[in-house]
TrEMBL record:
Pfam families to which the protein is assigned, alphabetical: TPR_27 (PF23310)
Species of provenance: Acacia crassicarpa (northern wattle)
InterPro entries in alphabetical order: At1g67623-like, At2g35280_TPR_dom, F-box-like_dom_sf, F-box_dom
UniProt name for this protein: F-box domain-containing protein
F-box domain boundaries: 20-69
Taxonomic superkingdom: Eukaryota
Amino acid sequence: MADSGAPKRIKLNTYDGEICRLITCLPTEILEEIASKVASQSLADLYHLKLTCKEMMSITDKDYVYKHASLDRVPFFRSPEIPQEASFLKRCRLSGNLESLYRKGMEAYLMNYELYEEGLGMVRMAAQNQHKRSMYAFAMVVLLMWRSGRIGNLWTEEFGEALGYLRFLRNHKCVLECRNQVAEFVRRGNMCCFVAQLPIKSLCCNFPCKNTWRLKIGSWFFETEDDDENDPNMCENCRWDHEVEEFSANVLNISVSDLPYLRHP
């Protein structure tokens, strides 16, 4: 009696030929979608898929695949930089990969004064495609510059765009998560935030504000997204004043007690 638990051995050549035959039967659009899904989950699996056959080698080299490639396992920073990795990230960025745009944009904005406008432009491009960390980072940059009196070339359009991003993130209950992720990125890169300064004015012009923002748990510092009270009768500007100050404390390492406009309910 044959051992039912022993796997059948398949000749490698036969197996490869069957895979190639099945692949060539599928439309190019479907193959691109398959490759992009693999890329969004694992770069290692994408590499193995690339080696399957000539058809997949060609498919996996398309911009659409690089645009959707996952960078979760690619470190934020490497020293010294690995040429192959740098080339891969550049290809992702040129293909419109949102995470790659966010990383390169933040690096340029925070570390190179001559490139900060270009860097912010990359972050904004990713934000406009609903990359959540980019939405948060762009919003904080705009509000920080407005509150510090360094609005520069940022116009009303950017200011309204920033508030729209924060409302989107708040409705999706991921403001705190995005704040922590952006702060982690800045810390890992040992970046100097020369473009961000201590806020000198508030978004909310009413002091004391009768409809000030508060937390469900009654404490000024919240630990989960569910603690954030989203009541239309409360002052939205107070909420974002708090967020700017929390971001300043996390990114600029400024003690919360030193922030001049921190409001307590």
